[in-house]
Design goal:
The radius of gyration is 25 Å and the shape is flat. It is α/β, with parallel strands linked by helices.
Length: about 325
């Protein structure tokens, strides 16, 4: 769809500088945008591209507005304004409620007439699917599961038995919710599997990226609260609790029974040990290993930044010798 800058200013809350009747049909990058398109500047690394842009409008901060060669939407948070504009110009596709003839539907299901069940979907017994929900091709929904209204399950999502999915949830292809967690007891030289009799509860407005997995609880449920955003290829173990509006970047692993607070941000490829707590409003930078409870809000890091290989090897050798060096220093001080 298209919109005038006056309309986009109203939708986004940004201040308009320029022609309110300018029509925007598309979104593009600073370097590739052309007439009829809007772009944005929120990262200082790309400031040098502003003077060269061919866009009909730019979303930017007040600090950059004087250097803008075209119409502008000015805001203290250009990235948020960009997000609102993209949502307005590219609304999510809505589907006409129907059940594909190849779908397999179990007994005593309650599927709203406005929901869409695509090809080759398998739905177990006693399943509830809310209004205007879309179930993509090849999805599997186990017995006694519940999916709230206006949810979107893209292709090949698996929801196992007794899982509860809230409203406005988005699950991308390959997501698995409610598989058994990694629970085994050592019996001499063999492992005895522990049945997982809990389930998983996903709150409202949760989004889970492609091929991420959320394991069911051993006894109590694994819980993902309202507004949580989970990126691709993330593993969430059994009995984990994730508080409201926490965001987790790709390839993070969260071990069983960890508790993550509200509004946390967890950087990519980080790992969080089991049975620890992370309080509210914590930022964990990428590739961090969290082995102990974090009680104070703030920014935490433990990953080693990349350097050239020779320097890295020297640093490793010195690190291995650190304890010996400290002991020698202490002896000299004595």
């Amino acid at each position: 769809m298209s919109a005038t800058l006056a309309e986009l200013s109203k939708v986004s809350g940004a201040s308009l500088v320029g022609n309110p009747e300018c029509v925007i049909k598309n979104v593009n990058t600073l370097s590739l945008a052309k007439s009829g398109e809007i772009t944005f500047l929120s990262n200082r690394r790309y400031t040098h591209l502003l003077s060269q842009t061919k866009a009909s409008a730019v979303v930017l901060s007040d600090d950059d507005s004087n250097n803008c060669p075209t119409n502008a939407l000015v805001s203290d948070n250009p990235y948020l304004v960009y997000a609102k504009i993209v949502n307005h110009l590219y609304p999510m596709k809505r589907y006409n409620g129907n059940i594909d003839e190849s779908a397999v539907i179990g007994q005593k299901c309650n599927i709203d007439d406005t929901s869409t069940i695509s090809a080759n979907v398998v739905v177990g017994d006693n399943v509830i699917i809310g209004a205007e929900t879309y179930i993509g091709p090849g999805c599997v929904i186990g017995d006694n599961a519940s999916v709230g209204e206006n949810a979107t399950l893209y292709a090949n999502v698996t929801i196992l038995h007794d899982v509860v999915i809230g409203k406005n949830v988005v699950l991308h292809p390959g997501v698995v919710i409610g598989a058994d967690g990694f629970g085994f007891a050592l019996d001499d030289e063999e492992w005895l599997k522990i049945p997982h009799i809990g389930s998983v509860t996903l709150g409202d407005d949760v989004e889970v990226g492609a091929n991420s997995t959320i394991d069911r609880g051993v006894i109590e449920n694994t819980v993902v609260c309202d507004g949580v955003k989970i990126d691709n290829q993330i593993q969430i173990g059994h009995n984990v609790y994730i508080g409201e509006n926490t965001a987790i970047a790709a390839c993070v692993g969260i071990a069983g029974s960890a508790r993550i607070g509200k509004r946390c941000q967890i950087g990519g490829a980080s790992n969080i040990s089991g049975h620890i707590e992370v309080t509210d409003d914590v930022i964990i930078t990428g590739m961090s290993g969290v082995a102990n409870t974090i009680k104070v809000p703030g920014v935490y890091s433990s990953g080693i930044p990349i350097t050239d290989n020779k320097t890295y090897k020297r640093n490793v050798i010195r690190f291995k010798s650190l304890d010996k060096i400290i002991k020698n220093i202490m002896l000299k001080l004595d």
